[in-house]
Each structure stands twice: as structure tokens, then as C-alpha cells.
Write a structure and sequence with these properties.
With about 140 residues, this protein is α+β, with helices and mostly antiparallel strands. Helices cover about 20% and strands about 40% of the residues. The strands form 2 sheets. The chain has a 5-stranded antiparallel β-sheet with strand order 1-5-6-7-4. Strands 2-3-8-9 form a 4-stranded antiparallel β-sheet, with no helix packed on it. The radius of gyration is 16 Å and the shape is globular. It starts with a strand and ends with a helix.
Length: about 140
């Protein structure tokens, strides 16, 4: 059974449109911040050095479905689950809520990459110690 990680975040004025509703693009920033918080809670980082190499997790897919509006100064709960851990990628699901109201559901897939100095990211298998922690969250 997957474990859920919970974080809360206030919808600030800068996150909203002229109608005072959270702008669709802000959900992606909130998902990224929730992912980073989850990784930190596991003693990991989205950007680290593993076995002497810079390792990071750029996104290759992101989506969000909106169920009800979030408004300025509402505190959103964000539940993050690890849906899938592959050899080189990890997929997260994000459930946004305000009190008992479902606000949005998002999904994001990131690929583990090493970044040679001055070069472009190259996908690599997720390091064993990182994969073990992600598998524990996924319940696999």
C-alpha cells in the first residue's frame, strides 16, 4: 500500500488571476515544491551528488485536472503519493484539497539523470539507495 506524504501551502496573491482564483500554472509550482518536500523528508534531494556525480530529476511529463477553484489565502492540503518507480523514472500523484473539498489532481514523472559538467542531462538508473526509499513510499 502506498504511503502518502502531506504538505500544506497557502495560496498567495501572486498565485491567483484577476478573479482571485489560483492560476492553473501555480498548481505546477505547488507540485514541484511538494515533491521537493517529500524528497527532503526521505533525506534526499531533487539535485544531489551520488557516487561522485551530479544527479537530478528533470520532469518529462506533468498534468493537472482541476475540480474546484482555490482562492487567495486558502490553505491547500497536498497529498503526494509515489505511483510508480521505474528503472530510471518516478511518477508522483498530487491530491489538492481545501478543508474537505477536492480542488485538483496532478501527476508528474521525473527521470533520473546525471549531468556532466557543462553537458546535457543523461538518463541513468535511479541509484539503489534512492530507489529503495521511493519504493518504500510506493509500497512496492
Amino acid at each position: 500500500m502506498p504511503q502518502s506524504f502531506h504538505v500544506s501551502r497557502l495560496v498567495e496573491f501572486a498565485d491567483t488571476d484577476m478573479a482571485g482564483i489560483m492560476h492553473f500554472s501555480a498548481f505546477f509550482r505547488f507540485m514541484e515544491a511538494a515533491e521537493h518536500a517529500l524528497l527532503r523528508s526521505l533525506g534526499l534531494s531533487v539535485y544531489s551528488t551520488v557516487e561522485g556525480e551530479v544527479v537530478t530529476f528533470p520532469r518529462v511529463a506533468a498534468s493537472c485536472e482541476y475540480h474546484s477553484p482555490a482562492r487567495c489565502e486558502e490553505e491547500l492540503g497536498i497529498d503526494v503519493t509515489v505511483e510508480r518507480v521505474g528503472t530510471k523514472s518516478v511518477t508522483y500523484v498530487f491530491a489538492f484539497s481545501h478543508v474537505d473539498r477536492k480542488v485538483a489532481t496532478g501527476k508528474m514523472t521525473s527521470v533520473c539523470c546525471r549531468v556532466p559538467h557543462g553537458g546535457v542531462p543523461v538518463s541513468i538508473p535511479i541509484p539503489d539507495e534512492v530507489a529503495a526509499k521511493l519504493h518504500k513510499m510506493a509500497g512496492t
